[in-house]
Amino acid sequence: MSKVVITGGSRGLGFAMVETLARAGHEVIAIARTESAELATLRAAHRSTVHFQAWDLSNIVSLAGLAKVLRETHGAIYGLVNNAGIGTAGVLSTLADSKIEELVHLNVTSPITLTKYLVRPMMTQRAGRIVNVSSIVASTGYVGLSAYGATKAALIGFTHSLARELGSLGITVNAVAPGFVATEMTHGLDPGQLEQIARRSALKRMATAQDVANTVEFLMSDKAANITGTVLTVDAGNTA
């Protein structure tokens, strides 16, 4: 049973990934500041396959310690899903400097640093899977999301180059770019905006958290053994 770490796994997209990968036969370790009620319920039903590790991922200097705790508690980690992030919106000209710094800190520096420490055992094992959760905003842009979009574009660049670095060791590195999905990050959009997003999509609907989780499950599976350095868009054809 392969062990997969999912950051931001207590709610939204992350929780859907935890639930889906556990049902697919993986042993999953969800990381977040606090455990949600839904994750606690899932853990109670899957005590041997779903775990929770409380950690503040914004504390960059502590991430080496997190990697050590994960190794000592769970053994060899096969997969990492860098899902945790924040979606602070705001027109750049009025966005506070502290908010820009916070976005880069948690959405870029944190996942890159955590990957650095968790990938080392994968390199020794010569096997592993890394999935970075980006966004369609990285390539399409969206008003009020320029700083956020920049952080998600950074993860795509990270994905391409890291795939080159690790490919000879049998480790795949891919990104998933969800469209607008009904999670906490889209609660700020009014019904009219959500309807417009669905209407302009090729499938005339919005993608769901489950759609994104299914894509991550595929990338973690043997069926995706020869897929690396790519970005899979999950947006119901919004960018088609």
What does this structure look like?
The chain contains eight helices and seven strands, in the order βαβαβαβαβααβααβ. It has one domain (3-234): NAD(P)-binding Rossmann-like Domain (Rossmann fold), CATH 3.40.50. A seven-stranded parallel β-sheet has the order 3-2-1-4-5-6-7, sandwiched between helices. Helix content is 45%, strand content 16%. Helix 1 (12-23) crosses helix 8 (209-220) and helix 3 packs parallel to helix 4. Strand 2, helix 2 and strand 3 form a beta-alpha-beta unit. With 240 residues, the chain is α/β, with parallel strands linked by helices. The protein has helices spanning 12-23, 37-45, 63-74, 97-125, 137-140, 146-166, 191-199, 209-220; strands spanning 3-7, 27-32, 50-54, 79-82, 128-133, 171-178, 231-234. The mean pLDDT is 94.
List the quaternary state of the chains.
Answer: single chain
| CATH hierarchy: architecture | 3-Layer(aba) Sandwich
How many DSSP H or I helices?
8
- Uncertain segments: none
Summarize the helix and strand pattern as letters. Answer: EHEHEHEHEHHEHHE
Q: What is the SS-derived class?
A: alpha/beta
Helix content: 40-55%
| Average pLDDT metric | 94
Distance between the termini: 37 Å
Strand content: 15-25%
Number of strands: 7
Shape descriptor: globular
Q: Output the radius of gyration.
A: 17 Å
CATH class: Alpha Beta
Largest sheet report: 7 strands, parallel
How many domains? Answer: 1
Q: Fill in the CATH topology.
A: Rossmann fold
